[in-house]
């Protein structure tokens, strides 16, 4: 099945210059994230029960997983194990587009969802 991202509602992130669109199936979900502006993201470190894969399709981002910082550029892939503390910290000069795959699916991100957020903060 082909996903047309334009058919999915844009989800604005509070306090952060990110546009997100969300699709999910029975076993995993995918979040397309577009960061048009370069700079610090100021996202607090968090963790969740979902394992996560991040694929950068354009630009670059910096993120931290369990205390180690990584630079991800277009074509790079990162794996974040379930219950691992992580955050995205910085978007490169050209912005970034990335796909975040989560299993089990992040149903808390679905438009109209009443599922509590899966994100946990220390």
Characterization of this structure:
- With 122 residues, the chain is mostly beta strands.
- The protein has a domain at 22-86.
- It is 0% helix and 50% strand.
- Strands 1, 2, 3, 4, 5, 6, 7 and 8 form an eight-stranded antiparallel sheet that branches.
- The mean pLDDT is 94.
Please state the oligomeric state of the protein chains shown.
single chain
Order of H and E elements: EEEEEEEE
Average of per-residue pLDDT values: 94
E-strand count: 8
Q: Could you tell me how far the N terminus lies from the C terminus, measured between alpha carbons in angstroms?
A: 38 Å
Molecular shape: globular
Radius of gyration: 14 Å
Per DSSP, the total helix count is 0
Strand content: over 45%
Q: Which spans of ≥5 residues are poorly predicted at pLDDT below 50?
A: none
- Give me the secondary-structure category: mainly beta
Helix content estimate:
under 10%
Largest sheet: 8 strands, antiparallel
List the helices and strands and how they pair.
Layout: E1 10-12, E2 19-24, E3 29-35, E4 39-40, E5 51-65, E6 68-73, E7 77-80, E8 86-103
Antiparallel strand pairs: 1-2, 2-3, 3-8, 4-8, 5-6, 5-7, 5-8
Domain Cupin type-2: 37-100
Protein name: Cupin type-2 domain-containing protein
Pfam families: Cupin_2 (PF07883)
Quick recap:
This protein is mostly beta strands and 122 residues long.
Structural features:
122 residues; mainly beta; 8-stranded antiparallel beta sheet; Bacilysin_H2HPP_isomerase
């Amino acid at each position: 099945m082909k996903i047309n991202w334009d058919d999915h509602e844009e989800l604005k992130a509070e306090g952060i210059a990110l546009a997100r669109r969300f699709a999910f199936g029975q076993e995993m979900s995918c979040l397309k994230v577009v960061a048009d502006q370069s700079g610090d993201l100021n996202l607090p470190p968090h963790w969740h029960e979902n394992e996560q894969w991040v694929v950068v399709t354009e630009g670059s981002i910096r993120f931290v997983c369990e205390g180690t910082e990584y630079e991800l550029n277009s074509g790079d892939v990162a794996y974040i194990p379930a219950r691992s503390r992580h955050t995205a910290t910085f978007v490169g000069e050209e912005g970034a587009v990335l796909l975040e795959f989560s299993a089990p699916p992040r149903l808390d991100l679905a438009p109209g969802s009443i599922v509590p957020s899966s994100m946990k903060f220390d």
